[in-house]
Amino acid sequence: MEIQDIFDNHAKNYDNERRDLIPCFDDFYRIAIDVIDFKGDNPRVIDLGAGTGLLTLFLLEKYPNAKVVLVDLADNMLDVARERFKGNENISFRNENYLTAEFDGEFDIIISSLSIHHLNQEDKVLLYNKYVNLLNDNGNFVNADHFCEADDRVYKKFYKKNDDMILEKVSLESFNKVNERRKFDDPDSIQFQLDCLRESGCDLVGVPYKFYTYAIIWGQK
Known about the structure:
By secondary structure, the protein is an alpha/beta fold. It has 9 helices and 7 strands. The chain has helices spanning 3-9, 11-21, 25-34, 54-62, 75-84, 121-132, 152-167, 172-182, 190-200; strands at residues 44-48, 67-71, 91-94, 107-113, 135-146, 204-211, 214-220. Strands 3-2-1-4-5-7-6 form a 7-stranded mixed beta sheet, with helices on both faces. A hairpin with a 2-residue loop joins β6 and β7 (214-220). α3 (25-34) crosses α4. The protein starts with a helix and ends with a strand. The mean pLDDT is 93.
């Protein structure tokens, strides 16, 4: 089964599970948008691995006139997003692989949540090079994601801490479905991806938020 099939199969329940499966849900999504430094009110935005559009939903609270392209492999996930943003002519959808998708012009903001950790290191380097190059000067790149630690012993401790909190809220059956999706995970360290942002052309990079294995990294070109 391909990764898009896994997410297509979980599309209807995806949003309902988020608060139970992400112990830091509110801070995680809120700070990912709060850190963005864009002075206007109508940025051009790409949401990579947008899924059901959760992160875009938070973005539109800050930038209601944003023009956003949501890109995802799983069309059933995008169907949820299409319904969520029905009637908003500033929102468009691309059922594509964002590593190979082509875009016209430059963008002010590129965001992603819980998607880039599915890529191997080589593809992460490709992604950051590709999309930082699409940013305008002073453009922002935000990745709210799952990261590993440089020391695997620390990572295992933090991973277990997250799982313990999840198991307090969900059934074992639901937890096992989460583990099914985790087979496609290939997380890298925060430092590796900060280096990717910097080497791709971001002048400023930083970590505005971290909670065990969840973190937000930010770069400004």
